[in-house]
Amino acid sequence: MEPQKTSLWLIAFRVIFTVALIACIVFIFRNSLQAGELSSARSQAVMQVLNQLLGRVGLGPLSQHTVRKLAHFAEFTMEGFLLMLCLRVYTRHFVRHMSWPLLGGMTTALTDETIQRFIPGRTSQVTDVWIDMAGVVFGLLVALILLLILRAAGAFHRIKKENRRLRAEREELLRQQREDRLDAETTHPRNPDRRELL
Questions:
Q1: How far apart are CA 84 and CA 17, in angstroms?
Q2: Which of 74, 70, 85 has the alpha carbon at shortest distance from 20?
Q3: Is the model's pLDDT at 197 over the cut of 70?
Q4: With bands split at pLDDT 50, 70 and 90, how would you rate the model's confidence at 181?
Q5: What is the C-alpha R_g of the chain?
Q6: pLDDT attached to residue 145
Q7: How far apart are CA 70 and CA 60, in angstroms?
């Protein structure tokens, strides 16, 4: 029995999602390696932009603390999303193996907070690990819902295609039966005319 060949599309998606996941983790760790003053300045800049946008719609303002926690949540949401996509392109049974991306997200969150302990002007907090894990779980759920929708759409498309094929086969079979019946009637008439028999 020959081993099943992996499609080029699947290989391409494996490369894309794996590289994207690694880039996301590097981005998270790079942010953690920034000194306290630089990190605070970046948070201030992001806070000003967000507060300007929120002010236009009558919301806000956000504090720097809230912006930093939202940033934690957002970057780990992206990691959770990419972890689930990576899991999907490496196995068809992605729901069964959900513990792997959860473990990966937890490892990244703990490593991230551990890095911050050794950076001047930065602190490490247990609440940040919980926020990071909440982001991972949220990203996983978004990706899972998206994958399940795509799977359902694919199954629906396959069913429609199979129904079309079956209808075409049935119509072909009925047409063939009609032709056979007409051929039989022309070669062997059922009720010959009596005048022809006399």
A1: 10
A2: 85
A3: no
A4: confident
A5: 31
A6: 94
A7: 14
Number of structural domains the chain divides into: 1
Per-residue model confidence (pLDDT) at position 36: 78
Take residue 195 and report the two structure tokens written for it: 């005048």
Contact 100, 87 (CB under 8 A): yes
Token pair for 159: 């069913």
Distance CA 129, CA 33 (A): 16
DSSP letter (8 states) at residue 119: S
Answer whether residue 41 is part of any domain: yes
Tokens of 7: 């499609």
Entry pTM = 0.77
In a domain, 91, yes or no: yes
CA atoms within 13 A on the CB side of 28: 30
Cα–Cα nearest to 115, from 37, 40, 36, 29:
29
Range of the domain at 134: 8-152
